C-alpha cells in the first residue's frame, strides 16, 4: 500500500491543532503579555507606557522584593526535602499493611490533601490558638510557655511549613506507594535469602529503585512550594505581613493593593526565571545522581 | 381547542401587562457592613424597598470589609461588572480615584436630590472630593470611643457625680485609673493589639492630640518635629500592654469578647460596636451596665481619629449608566441620608446636617455623650497611600502593632515606618 505522506501530515496537524491553539491562547500568549507588561508602567487593568527596564532596576533596589525572595527560599528549604522524606517513610510503613487496613490508613493520610486551604487554615488556627489550642500543650512543654506561633516571627515560617507538610503529604505518599508496589518482590526475597539487614535492603534495593519516583516528587514539590501564597497569606492575617512576605504575595500586593501592574509583572518574570533555573538545576542534579 | 386559544391569549395579555410594570429600576448595592451596623443597614434597605415598591429595588450584597472589598470593587469596575452604588470610606477616596475605580458624581445631579455642600459639614463634604470633583457623598462620621463597664468603674471609684467616668484625662491619670481597675478584672483595658485597625485609630488620635503631622505639605511622612510626638503616642500604647493592663497580640474579635464577657473594664473600639452592646444588653446577656464616652485627652487637647462612610458610584468601564438608573441611584443616596437617624442607632454620627442637628439625634444615647468628637475629629491624611486597606494600614501592622507588643522599640518603629512609607511614596 502506498501511503499518502501529505495526508498523514495534515491529519497529524489537525489532531494536535486544538491543543496547540488552547496552549497558545491560554498559556503562551498571556506569558508573552506578562513579559511585555513588565516593561511598562501599567496599572492593574489596562495598558501602560513603555518604560524599558525601569521596573527591573527598581526591583533590584527594593528591599521588600529581596525579603520576599529570601522568605520563599526559606519556605522551600523547610518543606521540599522534609515533605519528600516523610512521604517516603509513611509510604514504606503503609506498604507493610495489607488489604482493607492499608486502604483505611492510606485514606486517613490522604484526607488532609482533599481539604481546601481555607479549611486547613481554620483547623490549624484553632489548633494553635493561644487560649484554646490543643497544640499549646506540647508548645508549652518545649518553649516553656504558650506561644502564638503565627505571631512570633521566628516560628512563623516553620509553623506554616509544618501545616503545609501535614496538608500535602498525602499525595506524595500515594506516589511513593505506587513506586514501592512496582518493585518486584523477587528482589526482596533474594535479599532475604542472603540474610541482608533491613537497612541494607533499603540502602541497596528500595532507595535506588524508588529513585525515579523520589526525583519526580522532589521536582513537583519544588515547583509547587516556590509558588507558595495561600497559607502564608491566610496565616499572616492580623499580624505583620512584611517580614514573612513571599514572592507571590508580594506580586499580589503590588498588583491588587497598590495598582502597580507593570511592577508586579516584573516580579512575576523574576519568579518565572527562578522557577525555571532552579528546576533545571535540580533536574540535572537528579539525573546525574540517577545515572551513577 | 377554543380553550387553548383563550389561555394563550390570556397569558399573552398577562405577559404584556407584566412588561408594563418592568419600569421598576434595580439598583445593585455592595457594602462591607457585616457587624451590628450591618443589621441596621439591612433594615434601612428593606424600608427603602417597601417605600419604593413600585419604582426602585435595592439588591444588596455584603462583602468582607477592608482589602477584599476594595480589591473586588477595583477589579470589577475595570471590566464594567461593579455595582450601581456602594459604600466607600472617604479616607480612601484619593486612592480610589487614582486607581480609576470611582466615577464622578455631578454636583448638579446631587443638588437635584437636595444634597450639597450646605447639607454636610464642610470638611466632611470635601473629604469626598479629589481635584475639586465630587466622587463620594458622606453618610456618617465614625470614630473610636471608650466603652466602660459601669459596675467595675463604680467599684474602683472612677464614676463622677453625673454617673460618667471621671479623672481619665492626662496620660498619667489614665494609667493611674487602669492601675485601680487592675485588681477587679482580668484586664483593665481591652483593645485590638495586632494587625491594623484599632492600633492605627488609637495611634492617630494620640498623635493628633499633640498636633503631630503625619504627612507634611512637601510629601514628607513624619516631619522631624513630629517624630518625638509619634514615639510618645506609641510609647503610651505600648505601656498599656507592658504594664499588664491590656492583652498582648489580641485580634479584633477577641478584644470585643474580653469586654462583653466582663473580663475587661475599659474597651477602645469604633462607634460601630455600639449596636453589639445595645443588642446584648437588650437580650440581658451582657451581665453589667455599659456606657461609652469620647476618648480621653491624653496630651495637649482633645482629638480623635475619624473616618466617614459614604456612597460612591464605581467607574464601570464600558457600561454607560442609563439616566433612569442614575436617577434611581441618586434617590438611594439621598433617601439614605435623609433617613440616617436610623443609622445613628448603629453608633455613627449622621453626616447629613439636618439629621445631626435634629432634636431626636441630640437626645439619642450614647451618641449624645460622645457626639463632641465630631468637632475634634482628625481625619486620615489625604494621600493615595492612606485610608482603609492602604499602605498606611499595612505599615501599622508592620511597625506600630509590634511596638505595642514590645517586639520593636517605639523609636525604631516610627523611623522604620517613615522610611517604608517614604520609600513607597517616591
From TrEMBL, chain A:
It is found in: Cell membrane. It comes from the Bacteria. Keywords: Cell membrane, Membrane, Sugar transport, Transmembrane, Transmembrane helix, Transport. The keyword Mitochondrion does not apply. Residues 69-282 form the ABC transmembrane type-1 domain. GO terms for biological process: transmembrane transport. SUPFAM superfamilies: MetI-like. CDD domains: TM_PBP2 (cd06261). Pfam families: BPD_transp_1. The keyword Ubl conjugation does not apply. It is a multi-pass membrane protein. Belongs to the binding-protein-dependent transport system permease family. PANTHER family: ABC TRANSPORTER PERMEASE PROTEIN, DIACETYLCHITOBIOSE UPTAKE SYSTEM PERMEASE PROTEIN NGCF. This is Multiple sugar transport system permease protein.
UniProtKB/TrEMBL annotation, chain B:
One of its GO terms (cellular component) is ATP-binding cassette (ABC) transporter complex, substrate-binding subunit-containing. Residues 1-23 form the signal peptide. This is Multiple sugar transport system substrate-binding protein. GO terms for molecular function: maltose binding. It comes from Devosia psychrophila. Belongs to the bacterial solute-binding protein 1 family. SUPFAM superfamilies: Periplasmic binding protein-like II. Gene3D superfamilies: Periplasmic binding protein-like II (3.40.190.10). One of its GO terms (biological process) is maltodextrin transmembrane transport.
Amino acid at each position: 500500500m502506498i501511503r499518502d505522506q501529505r495526508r498523514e501530515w495534515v491529519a497529524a496537524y489537525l489532531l494536535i491543532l486544538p491543543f496547540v491553539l488552547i496552549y497558545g491562547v491560554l498559556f503562551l500568549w498571556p506569558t508573552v503579555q506578562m513579559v511585555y507588561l513588565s516593561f511598562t508602567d501599567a496599572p492593574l487593568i489596562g495598558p501602560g507606557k513603555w518604560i524599558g527596564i525601569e521596573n527591573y532596576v527598581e526591583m533590584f533596589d527594593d528591599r521588600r522584593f529581596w525579603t520576599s525572595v529570601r522568605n520563599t527560599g526559606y519556605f522551600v528549604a523547610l518543606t521540599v526535602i522534609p515533605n519528600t522524606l516523610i512521604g517516603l517513610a509513611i509510604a514504606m510503613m503503609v506498604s507493610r499493611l495489607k488489604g482493607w487496613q492499608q486502604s483505611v490508613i492510606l485514606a486517613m493520610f490522604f484526607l488532609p490533601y482533599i481539604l481546601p486551604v481555607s479549611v486547613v487554615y481554620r483547623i490549624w488556627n484553632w489548633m494553635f490558638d493561644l487560649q484554646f489550642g490543643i497544640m499549646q500543650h506540647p508548645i508549652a512543654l518545649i518553649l516553656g510557655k504558650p506561644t502564638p506561633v503565627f505571631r512570633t516571627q521566628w516560628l512563623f515560617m516553620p509553623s506554616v511549613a509544618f501545616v503545609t507538610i501535614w496538608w500535602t503529604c498525602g499525595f506524595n505518599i500515594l506516589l511513593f506507594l505506587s513506586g514501592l508496589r512496582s518493585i518486584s518482590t523477587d528482589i526482596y526475597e533474594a535479599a532475604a535469602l542472603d540474610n541482608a539487614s533491613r537497612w541494607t535492603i533499603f540502602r541497596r534495593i528500595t532507595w535506588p529503585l524508588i529513585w525515579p519516583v523520589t526525583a519526580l516528587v522532589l521536582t513537583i514539590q519544588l515547583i509547587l512550594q516556590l509558588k507558595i501564597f495561600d497559607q502564608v497569606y491566610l496565616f499572616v492575617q492580623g499580624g505583620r505581613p512584611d517580614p514573612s512576605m513571599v514572592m507571590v504575595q508580594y506580586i499580589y500586593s503590588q498588583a491588587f493593593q497598590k495598582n502597580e501592574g507593570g511592577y508586579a509583572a516584573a516580579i512575576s518574570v523574576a519568579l518565572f526565571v527562578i522557577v525555571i533555573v532552579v528546576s533545571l538545576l535540580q533536574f540535572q542534579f537528579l539525573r546525574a545522581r540517577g545515572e551513577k | 381547542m377554543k380553550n387553548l386559544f383563550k389561555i394563550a391569549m390570556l397569558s399573552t395579555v398577562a405577559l404584556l401587562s407584566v412588561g408594563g410594570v418592568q419600569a421598576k429600576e434595580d439598583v445593585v448595592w455592595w457594602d462591607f457592613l457585616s457587624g451590628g451596623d450591618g443589621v441596621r443597614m439591612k433594615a434601612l434597605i428593606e424600608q427603602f424597598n417597601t417605600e419604593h415598591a413600585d419604582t426602585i429595588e435595592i439588591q444588596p450584597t455584603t462583602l468582607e470589609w477592608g482589602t477584599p472589598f476594595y480589591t473586588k470593587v477595583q477589579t470589577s469596575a475595570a471590566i464594567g461588572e461593579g455595582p450601581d452604588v456602594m459604600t466607600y470610606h472617604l479616607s480612601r477616596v484619593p486612592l480610589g480615584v487614582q486607581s480609576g475605580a470611582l466615577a464622578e458624581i455631578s454636583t448638579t445631579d446631587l443638588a437635584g436630590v437636595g444634597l450639597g455642600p450646605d447639607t454636610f459639614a464642610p470638611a466632611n463634604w470635601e473629604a469626598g472630593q479629589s481635584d475639586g470633583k465630587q466622587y463620594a457623598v458622606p453618610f456618617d462620621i465614625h470614630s473610636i470611643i471608650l466603652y466602660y463597664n459601669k459596675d467595675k468603674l463604680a467599684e474602683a471609684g472612677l464614676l463622677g457625680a453625673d454617673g460618667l467616668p471621671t479623672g481619665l484625662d492626662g496620660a498619667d491619670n489614665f494609667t493611674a485609673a487602669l492601675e485601680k481597675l487592675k485588681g477587679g478584672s482580668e484586664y483593665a483595658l481591652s483593645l485590638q493589639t495586632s494587625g491594623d485597625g484599632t492600633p492605627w485609630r488609637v495611634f492617630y488620635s494620640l498623635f493628633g492630640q499633640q498636633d503631630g503631622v503625619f504627612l507634611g505639605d512637601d510629601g514628607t511622612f513624619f516631619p522631624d518635629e513630629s517624630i518625638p510626638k509619634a514615639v510618645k503616642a506609641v510609647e503610651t500604647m505600648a505601656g498599656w500592654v507592658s504594664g499588664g493592663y491590656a492583652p498582648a497580640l489580641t485580634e479584633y474579635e477577641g478584644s470585643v469578647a474580653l469586654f462583653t464577657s466582663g473580663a475587661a473594664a475599659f474597651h477602645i473600639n469604633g462607634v460601630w460596636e455600639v449596636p453589639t452592646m445595645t443588642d446584648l444588653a437588650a437580650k440581658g446577656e451582657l451581665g453589667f451596665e455599659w456606657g461609652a464616652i469620647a476618648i480621653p485627652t491624653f496630651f495637649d487637647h482633645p482629638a480623635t481619629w475619624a473616618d466617614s462612610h459614604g456612597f460612591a458610584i464605581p467607574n464601570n468601564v464600558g457600561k454607560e449608566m442609563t439616566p433612569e438608573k442614575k436617577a434611581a441611584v441618586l434617590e438611594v443616596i439621598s433617601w439614605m441620608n435623609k433617613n440616617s437617624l436610623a443609622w445613628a442607632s448603629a453608633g455613627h454620627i449622621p453626616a447629613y446636617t439636618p439629621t445631626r442637628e435634629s432634636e431626636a439625634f441630640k437626645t439619642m444615647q450614647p451618641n449624645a455623650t460622645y457626639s463632641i468628637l465630631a468637632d475634634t475629629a482628625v481625619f486620615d491624611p489625604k494621600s493615595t497611600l492612606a485610608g482603609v486597606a492602604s499602605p498606611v494600614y499595612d505599615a501599622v501592622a508592620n511597625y506600630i502593632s509590634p511596638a505595642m507588643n514590645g517586639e520593636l522599640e517605639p523609636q525604631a518603629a516610627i523611623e522604620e515606618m517613615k522610611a517604608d512609607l517614604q520609600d513607597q511614596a517616591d
